[in-house]
Amino acid sequence: MIAVTDVLRLDGVDRSFGDRQALKNVSFDVVAGRMTGFVGGNGAGKTTTMRIILGVLAADAGRVTWRGAPLTREARQRFGYMPEERGLYPKMSVREQVTYLGRLHGMTAAAARQATDALLERVGLAERGDDLLETLSLGNQQRAQIAAALVHEPDVLVLDEPFSGLDPLAVDTVVGVLRERAAAGVPVLFSSHQLDVVERLCDDLVIISDGVIRAAGGREQLRRTYTSPRFELVVETDAGWLRDQPGVTLVDLDGARAVFDLAPDADEQPVLHAALARGPVRAFRPVSPSLTEIFREVAQ
Amino acid sequence: MNTMQATRLVAAREIRVKLRDRTFLISTVFFLLLAAAATILPAVFAGGPSTVAVTEQAAGPLRSAGLEVRVVPDDRAAERAVQDGDVDAAVVAGPTVLALDEAPDDVVGALSTRPPVRLLDPDAVDPAVAFLVPFAFAFIFFVTSQGFGVQIAQSIIEEKQTRIVEILVAAVPVRALLAGKLVAGTLLALGQIALVALVALVGMAFGGDGGLLSLLAPAIGWFLPFFLLGFVLIAAMWAAAGALVNRMEDIGGVSMPVQLTVMLPFFAVIFLHDNPTAMRVLSYVPFSAPTAMPLRLFTGDAAGWEPVVALVLLLASAVAFLLAGVRVYEGALLRTNGRTSIGTAWRSRETVA
């Protein structure tokens, strides 16, 4: 049961480092049960925002609330965090340190051991559990890192670039685990600069640039808001006549195939009629603009 | 989970890791062997009372002096026994004591009449012991605070270097992280010293030097609290030094001042141990008090109130250094780019509820 109040909310968060203002009035919600992608260029403020959520950094102004109340250390202890810069103890076994981190997050020894075993099984590390971390391949170290962030069954998950450095198989594993958590009612905030991964994964999207939130909301809603309707048309002969069609902006023309944007007030049906009047139409369909385009649009 | 519980978890991990660390185990075994050797070997080499060859009629006084008597038929046989190395000495007519190259004091003593001796300062300590005991105290404090201090710094750097520190800081209060490390370091240091002391005591009992023990007891009793506070003071400096850098290779630069504050008092106490004025001063300076004050107590130079005052001074400095160390640690811990200056660390503490 997902309560409506299970929201992690940032409200007017500012943060400066010396003269540089890293975050300006940052506000957005991370809603329970949804995967929220956090997108922005290098130095846009993703990591700073996440560190402030986790209490590793202090905000100069504004506040972060969870379930309507300002965050306390006790509440944060129930958060799961995967920092951008990875790290675990090289000379400790995977099982031992994941258990240790579970205990630091307030679990009893028995519960931590049990959760560790289950999680190592889930991420495919059960057989390497007693090996020292430094003897694992980089991909397996990343899996261990995921286990470390999830061991205490967090109320909220904050993951900074969780997919960077992962091989495709590991990406699938991690995606699977995160979806499970989201489905169980946990708000998941993850940052990434790999827009295709975010596109595949996120329900909601927050776009940050220069420390300012440029857009935040449901993925499809953002698509509608920030991009004009786009269509693909395939006809028998040359589609160059589209250029002269009212309300149409050609994006791509390749002989008989064309991709075009439609002015917001224009309708696509007249275009289809015009095409049919010129001969057979092999395809006519709306195209979803990729996140890259949304990102380009809002992060200008 | 509160700071206390977090501290305990952190300390438990530090200790667990250390007890598996080969370098630590080897150094501990080395110290134990050293303690055993230092206490047992002198007794073994001393070799007990001299053996002496003598004719039956002259054997009486030698036997009653506890010497090992070998009865020979005549003086020539006695002399031959000495020549052959069968005995340490022989007593022949005269009486004359025969020996190869060194006069056997115990044999001579058994045949002499000693004048009565009256000691005016019966508590005075044998000069050799008077040097060795403070040296042992200073050495233990020096080696332990240096060794475990470095380990505290290394443990902090490891967490910074591997970046796990960010996960840790998100989970538990920064103070708990530092407190856990200091508690673990102190417990390990005390544990190691206790083991060494135990071996030394058994060794002394074995070597038959029980008298020294009763002399040492009060000094050891004072050494413990001085050691504990002195260790905390130095460990706090090591923790701050460790937090300032990000790579093990860089520890040399920041640790130099810390090393000096351990090394200079050590050598001062060693070289000035028979200079009462210098020792009086050193026994109040917090850095040298842990070794200088127990030493003055051992030699009976300090009045009853003096260790109390020195201990209060040391306690105040330990608390001050601890607070400063925590502040630098908190300010520098998450600065994982290059080396942080103390000033920057001091000013840039993040305070998050």
UniProtKB/TrEMBL annotation, chain B:
GO MF assignments: ABC-type transporter activity
GO cellular-component term (any): membrane
ABC-2 type transporter transmembrane domain segment(s): 130-326
Pfam families listed in its UniProt record: ABC2_membrane_3 (PF12698)
Transmembrane segments: 23-45, 128-153, 182-207, 219-239, 251-272, 308-329
Keywords: Membrane, Transmembrane, Transmembrane helix
Entry keyword annotation includes Transmembrane helix: yes
Subcellular location: Membrane
Chief location category: membrane
Topological category with respect to the lipid bilayer: Multi-pass membrane protein
Domain of life the protein comes from: Bacteria
Protein name: ABC transporter permease
Organism in which the protein naturally occurs: Micromonospora costi
